[in-house]
UniProtKB/TrEMBL annotation:
Protein name: Uncharacterized protein
Organism the protein comes from: Microbacterium algihabitans
Domain of life, source organism: Bacteria
């Protein structure tokens, strides 16, 4: 179990498309990260203000999560698969 006062606790990152990630905490938009052609990551806060440019995705995530460049903030990545919605026909689930 993760401590709720640990940096980054409760933050969810979604990869919207290749190279573009959006962060939120408890449904509140925190900001986004956009991979640049050279491979670096530009991190933006919830008001689309540049937080910084980072070589690692996790460093960019920490910067957006903390609202400032990371200071040894630990962030781990894990893939979560969301099942596709099921089709509903005539009120019966299939």
């Amino acid at each position: 179990m993760v401590s709720p006062d640990r940096p980054g606790a409760g933050v969810v990152w979604a990869r919207v498309e290749e190279g573009f990630h959006v962060g939120s905490r408890k449904g509140v938009f925190l900001g986004y990260i956009d991979r640049q052609p050279g491979g670096s990551f530009d991190a933006f806060d919830g008001r689309s203000r540049l937080v910084g440019r980072f070589e690692a995705l996790t460093a960019a995530m920490a910067a957006v999560t903390n609202g400032q460049p990371p200071q040894d903030a630990e962030i781990t990545l894990e893939q979560v698969r969301v099942p596709a919605p099921r089709r509903v026909e005539d009120g019966n689930r299939s």
